[in-house]
Each structure stands twice: as C-alpha cells, then as structure tokens.
Amino acid sequence: MIRLIPLTAMVISLAACSAEETNGSTPSASNEVSPEGIEFTLLAMPDSDDVAVQAAWPTDWAYRENTNPAAALVGAEMILAGGAEGYPEGEAAEQLADLNTEGGLYGSANDHIVGELVFERDDINEVVEIANAHLRAPLLGQSWLDRISDGITQGVREERAQPGAAGFEAIRWAVFGEHPLRNALSLYDLNPLDELTRDDITAWHAETFTRSPEAVAVAGDIDARSAGEALDTLLAGLPEQGREVKRNVSPDFTPRRILLHMPQAEVSTLAFIAPLPPTRDGGEVEDLLLTHALGSDDQSVLFDAVRTQLRASYGFGAGVNNYTREHRILFMAGEVDTNQMAEAEAVVREAYANFRQNGLEGDLADHKAPLASHFSEVADRVMVQANSALESALDEHPVERSLKQELEAVTEASLNERLDTAFPSADEFIVIAVSPDADALPEACVIITPREAAGC
How far apart are CA 137 and CA 17, in angstroms? Predict the structure, then answer.
C-alpha cells in the first residue's frame, strides 16, 4: 500500500548543509578512490564525532521470472541479525549496540540494496570488520528465515485486509500486469513467502553483494585515505560484479477508472495515480513543495476542497512514491463516503486541475519554511548527509549537489514550470475506487479481485 508520507520523511535525500549548520566549519564534497580501487563520494564534515557509510548495490532480482521476490525482503533482515563467520547469532547486534553503532540493509525502489552504518569515528576498524563478516559470510540460518518470514507474512495479511491497500494493489495489476515486479512491490500474493527457502536467500546474497556497489558515500570528520581504507576492509573478500543487471519493464499508465467491489469493506476509498519524471531529471525540491501544498496536511488544497465542497469529515492527501528509480508516481488518496464517491472524484479532479493551473497560493516563503526548518535540523547528521550524497551519485548529479541550498533557488516561476511540464493533467490519472457498493463509481470497470484490474 502507498502511505501518505510526512514531509520530514520525504526530504532526507535532499538535505544540504552549510558552514553555519556544521558547528561553524565548512563541509566539502569530493569524488575519491580507495587504495584498492573502490570509487566513493566523500562528504567531509569537520568537527563531527560520527562517521556514516552508505553503499548501494544494483539488483534486478525483482524484475526476473525465476527469482523469489521475498528473498530480498527477508534476506536483508537476516544478514545482520542471523550471525556470520566468527559471530554467533545475536552477537554482532550486542557488539554494535555496545559501540553505539547503527546499521542495516534495505531495498531501495527495487533497484538497489542499500547498506548503512553510522558509528563513532574511533571505532571505525572494529565496526567495518563486523560488517564485512556479515556481508561476506552470513550464516543465514533457517530459524531466522522462519522468524523474519513469519513477521512479514503477518504484516502483509494485516495490510491486505484494508480496502486502501487492495486498491493500490489493483493499480499495480493495472500498471504492471503479470510482470514479476508487480508482486515484488508489495508481496500481496503470499506464495513467495510460503515457498521461500534458504537456497533462495543464499542465491540472492551471492549475486547481490560484490566489491562493486553502484555508489558509495562516506560522511563525517574523516580524510579520504582513512575512508578508503575502511571501505576496502568493509568490502574485502566479496566477489567482483558477476551478471549484468537488466531492469526491463514497461508500465502501462493509460488512464482508467476502476472500482474494486469489496462487499465486506467498512469504508470506501478513492485513489488517483499518474507518472512523474524520475529524480535524476531534477525538480525534486519543487515536487516536495507542490505535493505538500496539494495534500500533506489540513491546510492543503485537497483537504480544503473535500471538507468544504463535500462537507466531509474525512481528509484527502497527496504524495510521491517510487515504483522504481525510473518510474515515479504522484498519488492522491483518501477515504470517502460511499454515497459520495462520484462527487468526490469530481471534486478532487477539479481541485487538482485548479492547483495545476494556478500554482501555490500565498507567500512562497511560508511554503518553504517547513522544509527549511527540517534541513536545518538534520544538517549535522552524518547519516542524512551520506544518504544525500548517495542519492546524488545514483542520479548522476554533480558531487557538490549535496552541499547546495536548492531550496533557496526555487521560485514561483520554477514551481509553475514544474506544474506545467512535469505534473500530469487532471485527466491523466488512473482512478481506483474500493467500495461495498458496486455502483458507487458510475461507468467504471468493476472488478472483484485486484488481479482483474489488468484487464480493465
């Protein structure tokens, strides 16, 4: 399911720091190469006590027919939790906690597995040795596979019972059909979890973790030589890049109106989705400002339209999400009264069309203030800055982008241009209603299971 994401959770990859925001010392960004040839971005942050490392390994596991999509989700949790060569199960977690270190692995837009570490500078040698053992030779025990898989299964079952989640699953069927990526996006079909084996996990691990991440970033008060030596230790013993990554998918964003009939649903929901350009094309700060004004709080355009015109007790929100790094979407969604479904669709379309035509209302500085406040709060956090540098590298932006104050450069003209050239028109959305009333959305393609949306 796509969730409405708070503004503060959407801007981590855009955080920039300034001289004033790092204890009076000036940060710098540079492209570096370790003694053993690992390319990385170094964001030097003088006076910081911590160091953060992030690495992104490319993957096409979710795009392929012959893989189990649950392997990446379960495997990412197993690697650090389940022990490694020289580290019994649970021992590493205790050691890292004693060292005041945080670390983990997670999937990013189905195109990368990202590993992250943040630790006190003086503990760098011990921390990277622990992490290397778990990347290179994890135990991947069956007991941890069962434990983690059971937890994920429970979460999927709870989510799929919600009408909104079923609606977004129907949209994924409409957009991707039978492509393997569709189920990898949500695991709405529980078969991969039921069928997951340790062999699936070991195969995923073996092809994913190599000495050749697509991007690596280090942030903190550390010089290039020390950072490079730490990365060499972190990636020691891992294989060279093996198979070529191929991410072949052609989503179908043709506008459609679909109603998923769920007689047992206690509420009705309505959602709109349409594509946005990928972040590598720029405009991400404009997108954040625009979607926040469109539908992120009780002062937003959609919230006001639904409350005022429908006199509804519910709200309606908007946000941005990634199916993949290449395929990014704008969504608008919320609960609606079943007997107001058709009217709600018209109200939301009209409010969005007016917003796209007229842009932000009020003083631009007021719209920038929440974002500026967040940037200021996270400016000296090394993990945030490492993530910013990593995302910039993946999008092939200049190395110094993570230091720029992009928010200051946003103008009313740039926002209006973004609305005109990048945001979809009001009639370019796929609309999905979920309702106990099969007639709630007139002239829609009516289905009774999410899968049927592929035929609408």
Answer: 37
The per-residue pLDDT for range 227-276, each reduced to its tens digit, is 999 999 999 999 998 788 999 999 999 999 999 999 999 889 999 999 99
Of 72-76, 125-129, 191-195, 342-346, least confident by mean pLDDT is: 191-195
Residue 58 lies in a domain: yes
Q: Which of 366, 375, 374 is nearest to 293 (CA)?
A: 366
CA of residue 437 relative to chain centroid, distance: 33
pLDDT-derived band of residue 403, with 50, 70 and 90 as boundaries? low
Q: Which of 191, 182, 202 is nearest to 78 (CA)?
A: 202
Torsion angles phi and psi, residue 366, rounded to 5: -70, -35
Calculate mean pLDDT across residues 387-402: 86
CB 223: neighbour CB atoms within 10 A?
A: 10
Instruction: Indicate whether 216 and 282 sit together in one domain.
Output: no
Q: What is the pLDDT of residue 2?
A: 36
Dihedral pair phi/psi, residue 267, rounded to 5°: -135, 160
Give the separation between CA 123 and CA 112, rounded to whole angstroms: 27
Residues 6 or more apart whose Cβ sits within 8 Å of residue 325: 108, 109, 111, 112, 278, 279, 280, 394, 395
- 376, pLDDT greater than 90: no
Residue 11 lies in a domain: no
Helix (H) or strand (E) holding 104: strand 102-108
Q: Mention every residue, 6+ apart, whose C-beta is less than 8 A from residue 388.
A: 12, 13, 14, 15, 16, 43, 402
One domain for residues 404 and 267: yes
Condensed to tens digits (0 to 9), the pLDDT of residues 323-367 reads 999 999 999 999 999 999 999 999 999 999 999 999 999 899 999
pLDDT score for 404: 60
What pairing do the DSSP bridges indicate for beta strands 50-58 and 112-120?
antiparallel
Residues 418 and 286 in one domain: yes
Sign of the Cα torsion 64, 70, 75, 77 reads positive
Write the CATH number for 333.
3.30.830.10
With respect to residue 10, please indicate whether it lies within any of the assigned structural domains: no
**Number of domains making up the chain:** 2
* Stated length of the chain: 456
What pTM did the predictor assign? 0.91
Question: Could you tell me if 319 and 192 lie in one domain?
Answer: no
> Maximum distance among all alpha carbons in the chain?
67
Q: Which range marks the domain in which residue 338 is found?
A: 257-455
Side chain identity, residue 178: E
Same domain? 207 vs 271: no
